[in-house]
Structure formats: C-alpha cells, structure tokens
C-alpha cells in the first residue's frame, strides 16, 4: 500500500520522474528460482485468472552495522544469512480471499540442488536439513525451490526483509497493537541463554521499531517455534487492520516515508523489481476483505532424531497444501459456490477415439518419499483396458502431489477434450486436464495422491476445512492474546 505513492507522484513533472527512478534504484533483487522443482503454475480458472503465491522471507543477517546493533548472535557476523522466518502468501484466483502459511525455521526438509544467481556457486541436494539453511545454499531462489518441492505449490515471487528492514517498516507504519495474557520478559535464564529482550506488561500494547522486532523474534517466552509463528501472524493481522484504518492517502509526508522505507528494506525476485510492479502486486491483496484473510502454520511434530527439530505431520501438512494447490479458501466467510460436477460433459470438440491417442504415463508418486515402483506401468495397463492401446509407461519420474493429465497448450480445445477423455477413463475429475506449453503430447502424471489401487479417490478439499495443528488466525479477530511460558512471566515491577 505504501508504494501507491508512485502513482501519486508520476506525471509530466521532471521531479516526479526523478523520484520514481530514485525509488526504483533503492530496490535490490535476484533470480526467482534457484533450481528445478518440477512444479508447474496452476491452470487458469474459467475467467482466465490464476492464484498468486508469494514467498515472504525474514533473514537473520548480521552483516551490517544496523543489524548487529539489533542484537542476537553476534558471532554469526560475516556468515551467510539463514531464512529464519518463512511464510507463503496465497491470494485466490478471484482475489476474494487470502491465506498465509508459515513453516517453522527448524523444520527438517530436503533442500534440492540449487545455484546462487549472484555468485554462480552450485550446491548439491541435501536431506535432513533445517529449512532455514536453504537461504545459505543459493539465496532466496533456493528457498523458493525448496518450498515448491515440499508443497507442490508453484510460487510466483519472493520478497525478503532483514532485521533492520523490519524495524524500519514498523517505525514507518507507526506502531502495531499486540497482546499478552500476562506480563512478559524474554530474558536469559540460568538454563537458556539469549532471548529477544521483549518486555511488555499484561494486556494490549503498541509496539514499533526495535520492540516490534523483539516481538517477532521471541521464541522462549512463547514456548516454541510454532507459537512464535502464531505471534508473527498476530502482528501481521494487526498491521493489516492498522493500515486499513489509517487515512494514508491524505498524508503525503507519511506516504513518502513509507515508500522510501519499503523500497530500501525489501529485496525481491527479479520479475517484480520496480515500484510499478510492486504497486500492481499490492493491489492484488488490497481488495481482499479482512475477514477473508487467514494465517496458519504447517502442522509439525518433534523429529525422532532430534527433539529440538521438527518434521511435517505428513497427512495434515498435505491436507493444508492441497487447499492451497486447489485454491480453496481457508475460511468459511465467503458465499457458497455451486461446484462443477466432475462427471459433467466436457465442452468443445469431441475427443479422438481412445485407440488413436498416444498417452505417456509418468510416475509422480515420489513426493516426500520413495516413488511407488511400477506405478506408471499399472496405470498404463488401466488405460489399455479402457481402449487406450497407445498408452505407454515412461521411464522418467516427475514427482507431483496431484494426479494430472497434461496436454500441449497449442492443441487448444481439441487437446483439452482428449485430455478430459483420458481423465474420465481413469476416474479423475475433468479439472485434472491441464494445458502445458512444454508438453510434447498427452501425459498422465500419477501423483502422490494415487499411489495404490485401480480407482482414484479424490481427496476432499472444503473451504475452511483446515487440519488439526494448523493453528489458524483470522485477520478480523481482534481478541487474540499470546500465552507466556511461566519462566518468562513478568509482574511489571522488577
């Protein structure tokens, strides 16, 4: 919203152009992706729109004087920063709802092979590493690729802030209200060193600047990384409500401060490196009502090899990511939509005779686990039984969360009809047929959602049907207050 200033100052005046160019020069950027994930962008809906997914990264960099002054582990000065805060912002294709999902920094994942676009250095794939290390193995682009591999969600852009950036933005906004059920002092103890230094009395408090950063970094007083994510969501929800209430557009001075601060604080992926593009991006979220914004955390559990690390709760995590992949709202505050029948007759030209269609079947079951051996052959045999005599199992593997039928985009309506006939033969919904500009022909990718059996059972994905452990907060809820771990409760006096 701050970057709307660009529109206000643009015009024929030379001063306006020079200031716009100045703001553009403030913005730093690098490549969107650090490697190959195999995840493709969602197909457009009936209106031709697609969801928008943006990865938000908070780095722990202490490689500037400003960041060192803000505390933390000064022994890491000079090290490559880690991505200690990672959140995926999803804006629905119709721009009527939005969701945000955090993954705690110590969650154990596979980090794929990546290349740093700035240094050219390559990094081999590695397993059983905390997700925050992905930033050190190829920059923000590698973190984006890691998320795509884990979630099966295509991510359009990334935006990154460091400590100093958070403080500057919090100051520019003018303070955000947060709440604690008891007084809190996140200080070092005899058993646990460190701490953010957050010190607040019981109840609602307005934090900004360094105190806002302390709130966002506090972990010990809130109990664990999952609760830290919840506190971050509480802060962001409150910030959204604050911005909605403020009459920024009539205060040119504040708008200039916000625009200056934002462009200096943000580092972004290359394709959104301009004030105009960031403005267009912000407008995608502007129309989403506050009560249609939901913030959650991916369900996790202690890792069996190290209780201080976390692993995804596989079934619950996949249920959450399925909602994102299928663009299903996290809330139930929208109007009910009539769902299209998966058995409805496909529109367009009739499909070609099954026996004349060449179909390649790819094993995509290896998401987060080893692929199911022989699965492509099993599904190819199913197609043979349905009259698709030219169906063949591919020797290649393409991990994919959901079972899809790709058809070449240039084949248009005929390609869609042929793909839908394949989908129907396998018991898939017609929406499983998707256009792909890179597809060489009809291709069935048997996803992780169909590892066994001859009958496809579509998982249910209903609006607001969040799995246990998602710990969701709606942005309109002003009554949320953080619990404080007993050791860090403060009486407001000592």
Q: What layout of secondary structure does this protein have?
A:
Elements: H1 5-9, H2 14-26, E1 28-30, E2 52-59, H3 65-69, E3 83-91, E4 98-102, E5 108-111, E6 114-115, E7 122-123, E8 126-130, H4 140-151, E9 157-161, H5 163-173, E10 176-180, E11 183-185, E12 199-200, E13 203-207, H6 209-217, H7 225-245, H8 252-265, E14 267-269, H9 275-286, E15 293-297, E16 300-303, E17 306-312, H10 314-325, E18 359-363, H11 375-385, E19 391-397, E20 404-408, H12 412-426, E21 433-436, E22 442-446, E23 473-474, E24 489-490
Parallel strand pairs: 1-14, 2-9, 4-15, 18-19, 18-22, 20-21
Antiparallel strand pairs: 2-3, 3-4, 5-8, 6-7, 9-14, 10-13, 11-12, 11-24, 15-23, 16-17, 20-22
Question: How many strand elements?
Answer: 24
CATH superfamily of the largest domain: LCP protein
Question: Which of globular, elongated, flat, extended, rod-shaped describes the shape?
Answer: globular
Query: Roughly how many Å apart are the termini?
Result: 41 Å
CATH topology assignment of the largest domain: Aminopeptidase
**CATH class call of the largest domain:** Alpha Beta
Structural class: alpha/beta
Biggest sheet architecture: 8 strands, mixed
Q: Could you explain the architecture of this structure?
A:
This protein is of the alpha/beta class. It folds into 2 domains: 2-332 and 471-490, LCP protein (Aminopeptidase, 3-Layer(aba) Sandwich); 354-446, Alpha-Beta Plaits (2-Layer Sandwich). Helices cover 28% and strands 22% of the residues. It has helices at 5-9, 14-26, 65-69, 140-151, 163-173, 209-217, 225-245, 252-265, 275-286, 314-325, 375-385, 412-426, and strands at residues 28-30, 52-59, 83-91, 98-102, 108-111, 114-115, 122-123, 126-130, 157-161, 176-180, 183-185, 199-200, 203-207, 267-269, 293-297, 300-303, 306-312, 359-363, 391-397, 404-408, 433-436, 442-446, 473-474, 489-490. Helix 2 packs parallel to helix 8 (252-265) and helix 5 packs antiparallel against helix 8 (252-265). The radius of gyration is 24 Å and the shape is globular. Residues 1-13 and 340-345 have low confidence and may be disordered.
């Amino acid at each position: 919203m701050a970057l709307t200033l660009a529109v206000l100052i643009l015009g024929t005046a030379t001063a306006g152009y020079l200031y716009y160019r100045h703001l553009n020069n403030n913005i730093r950027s690098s490549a969107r992706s650090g490697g190959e994930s195999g995840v493709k962008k969602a197909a457009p809906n009936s209106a031709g729109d697609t969801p928008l997914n943006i990865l938000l990264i908070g780095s722990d960099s202490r490689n500037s004087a400003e960041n060192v002054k803000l505390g933390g582990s000064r022994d890491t000065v000079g090290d490559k920063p880690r991505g200690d805060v990672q959140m995926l912002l999803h804006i629905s294709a119709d721009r009527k709802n939005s969701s945000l999902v955090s993954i705690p920094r110590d969650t154990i994942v596979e980090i794929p092979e990546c290349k740093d676009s700035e240094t050219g250095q390559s990094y081999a794939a590695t397993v059983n590493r905390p997700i925050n290390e992905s930033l050190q193995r190829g920059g923000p682009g590698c973190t984006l690729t890691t998320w795509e591999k884990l979630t099966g969600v295509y991510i359009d852009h990334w935006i990154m802030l460091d400590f100093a950036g958070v403080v500057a933005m919090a100051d520019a906004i003018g303070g955000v209200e947060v709440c604690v059920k008891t007084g809190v002092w996140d200080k070092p103890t005899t058993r646990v060193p460190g701490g953010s230094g957050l010190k607040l009395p019981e109840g609602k408090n307005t934090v900004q600047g360094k105190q806002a950063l302390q709130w966002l970094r506090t972990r010990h007083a809130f109990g664990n990384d999952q609760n830290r994510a919840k506190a971050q969501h509480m802060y962001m929800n409150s910030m959204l409500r604050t911005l909605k209430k403020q009459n920024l557009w009539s205060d040119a001075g504040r708008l200039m401060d916000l625009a200056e601060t934002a462009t200096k604080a943000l580092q972004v992926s290359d394709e959104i490196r301009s004030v105009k593009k960031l403005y267009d991006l912000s407008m995608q979220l502007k129309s989403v009502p506050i009560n249609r914004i939901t913030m959650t955390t991916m369900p996790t559990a202690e890792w069996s090899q190290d209780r201080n690390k976390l692993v995804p709760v596989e079934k619950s995590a996949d249920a959450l990511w399925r909602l994102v992949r299928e663009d299903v709202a996290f809330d139930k505050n929208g109007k009910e939509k009539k769902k299209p029948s998966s058995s409805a007759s496909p529109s367009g030209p009739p499909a070609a005779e099954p026996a004349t269609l060449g179909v390649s079947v790819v094993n995509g079951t290896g998401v987060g686990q080893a692929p199911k051996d022989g699965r492509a052959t099993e599904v190819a045999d199913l197609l043979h039984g349905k009259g698709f005599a030219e169906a063949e199992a591919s020797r290649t593997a393409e991990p994919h969360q959901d079972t899809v039928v790709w058809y070449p985009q240039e084949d248009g309506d005929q390609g869609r009809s042929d793909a839908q006939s394949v989908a129907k033969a396998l018991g898939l919904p017609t929406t499983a047929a998707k256009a792909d500009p890179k597809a060489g022909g009809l291709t069935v990718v048997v996803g992780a959602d169909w590892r066994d059996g001859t009958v496809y059972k579509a998982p249910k994905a209903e609006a607001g049907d969040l799995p246990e452990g998602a710990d969701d907060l709606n942005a309109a809820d002003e009554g949320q207050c953080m619990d404080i771990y007993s050791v860090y409760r403060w009486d407001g006096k000592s």
